[in-house]
Amino acid sequence: MIPIQKVVVLGANGTMGAGSGEVFAAGGCDVVFLARTIEKAHEGLVAAQNMAKSVRIADRISLGTYDQDMEEAVAKADLIFEALAEDMELKKSFFAKVDKFRRPDSIVATVSSGLSIAEMALGRSESFRRNFLGIHLFNPPSVIVGTEVIPHAETDPQLVRDIVELLERRFGRIAIVAADKPAFAGNRVGFKVLNEVAQLAEEHGVAFMDYLIGPYTGRAMAPLATIDLVGWDVHKAIVDNVYAHTNDEAHEAFRLPGYMEELIDRGHLGNKTPQFGGFYRRVKEGNQTVQLVLDPKTGAYKDVRDTAVRKLSWLEKIRDLHHVGRYRQALHEFVQAEGPEADLARKVVFGYVSYALNRVGPDEVVREVRDIDRIMGFGFNWAPPSVLVDIIGRDEVIRQLERYKLPVPAVLRRVKAGEKMFREPHVNIGRFFAA
Amino acid sequence: MSAPVFILGGYQTDFARNWKKENKHIVAMIREAVEGGLEATGIDPKEIQVGHVGNFAAELYAMQGHLGAFLVDVDPAFSGLPTARHEAACASGSIAILAASAEIEAGRYDLALVVGVEQMKTVDPAKGGEFLGTAAWYEREAKGIEFPFPKLFGRLGDEYDRRYGLKDEHLAHISAINYSNAKRNPLAQTRNWYMTEDQARSVDKFNTVIGGRIKISDCSQVTDGAVSLFLASEKAAAAYAKKRGISLDSIPRLLGWGHRTAPIEFDAKIAESKNQPYVLPHTRQAILDAFRRAGIPDVWAVQAIETHDCFTTSEYMAIDHFGITKPGESWKAIEDGTIEMGGKLPINPSGGLIGCGHPVGATGVRQVLDAFKQVTGQCGDYQVENAKRVATLNIGGSGTTSVSFVVGFA
Predict the structure, then answer these.
(1) Is the pLDDT of residue B36 over 70?
(2) ω before A409 within 30° of 0 (cis)?
(3) How far apart are the first and last CA of chain B?
(4) Do B206 and A55 touch (CB under 8 A)?
(5) For chain B, does the N or the C end have fewer beta carbons within 10 angstroms?
(6) Does residue B248 register a pLDDT over 70?
(7) Nearest by CB: B13 against A22, A324, A428
(8) Quick one: which H or E segment has residue A168?
């Protein structure tokens, strides 16, 4: 394993900076947290202690500022880990400084969740470019173990292999290698589904869509609540980037709904703006907290109790089956359910399977089915597409894809009868289905 | 043992999961453990002749009794299967194994399914601690006491201290080893948690004192989990081997077992063992019984141990009770690295209860499944090299019900 002992985190006061720093410190590295001020760096340290549930993790973390400590810290570091805001120019300005101070053999990584790795490396020295790559940890890194490693064209291929091994064996990650394409693998597939549900919410309502594509479909959290958690600004940045720079079969699914665009302009960013909210908003009424839900057609919020979702008998039956662990039977019911709501749900879920597996290939985002399974299962906590195929059955999945005029992925056609697609050892597939 | 009992394999759920968050009933956990075990072994459900479930307190944690009956819900082929549930606090899983193996030895059945299961993350820690108090004499030792068991096992450490001297730094080292081992185990609850020896030695806002000398780092986990195990007679094991083209000799056995019960009250135990070299003599005897029945002279005939470390003090006790050191000298095996991975006799390569997790009624079955995996070379990153025999120790209550097994090849 490559001997990484000293790590510098740039942007250590941010959620991803502190969280990534915690992962490196917990793995036994000496980590320098750099921020604009010592106070900010200290905020990152406190966040790291809370994530590790350990005061003593501070033994491995020292603090500094960009102005006073960056040169020395970067010069000594084996790994320089950039976790600044998702702003290409800001990142590039820091990389220019890093390039001046670093050792030629040190590794430089960005935690960017979707910006071009190649563009970040433009103008840098040859040794920087060879040793530069993306290491995309998901939020919060101390809990979510799925990790993407993203080389650009000039990254040393051996370094990519070494980093994957290091992340897995020393830092307890479940890592994949993804291509340097907009949003990489996890966010490309995940935000396609999230944005599609946000589009559908305009016609069908927020609470209804979260009910229809709820945890029973193989996700830890309902989609629109997930967008609130992520932040609408982040969501917009990701889907706009993919929409602008890709042109695949789901291109229109990445168009940010107009109502979201308007609300973002008015400051509605989800959970991070509690006064405005996002799809949901909590308000105090006397001693009680009341949950409000957005009406995308008007931009107004209604009391969730006044917008009760009509329960669907087939969906409730599926939830009951998940409750007692009958996952195969539950998904059989999902395939057989009748009515326009069932069609809508199947279109989204099989659209996910189709889109995810279509991203596998030599010119696609990942090389192996296992990679897309890993990042959706352990980065997003969604049922990996292969798990759905294995439980529902390859032939039935193909029938459903054809029924909804969704592209049938080449990798799906190659699956032999009786062969399992999901290859992850030691994983209970039931963990992906909540009731 | 009178007739050999073979172990064909089994399955463990991921102990990091939270089944309440997944909105699952305890039967979902049983189902995953059984279906996973059937898939791992290739056993046809129709072949199973009897089922035993180990569980401590589903009535309290999950408002559900009669767990044996839930086995029948797993597969249509199980309809009519004779089943039973067994309870002996944290030793419930081992008692279920003993019941199943006794039936095989007696010739009643040839293939038994054992499941250990506990769902614990349904209540807050204080309420869960109170529920665990029913494994002691509740009215006398637990009623009105917050977290009674850490306090009882803290007193086990105090008794060692009184008789032989005990340094908390040795307990911290036990904790650090278990956390470290768990990082290699893909099913361990704490595989991504942070705990170093420094942290285990510290007292701070994250590592608070729970009772007496017991801090959070000394405690096993609140865990949801289920484990299945398939036990077979020689006839069934031979058929299993033949079908798979393997030799009967390649299938490990339950080589020996020991089972003793001490007075339930902690004070009564200590009073009884006064002036004796072993603090928990009945636990020592359960281990010796297992060695005798396995036909091995002492602990050095096994290559690893999966022991009950509900608290660091219970592992400290296990070290001398297994005979790794003289009574009261467990610290020597901690200091010289004997019990670490790569040491002379690794303890809890899985991470044990502190690292792997402690779903109370499942722990005894998990220990034997891990012993099976060790002797068949299936432990991956936490494999102990050349493990031919592994011993287990599972304790219910404050050293009350002790069950020990030796698993492996004669």
Answers:
(1) yes
(2) no
(3) 12
(4) yes
(5) C
(6) yes
(7) A428
(8) helix A157-169
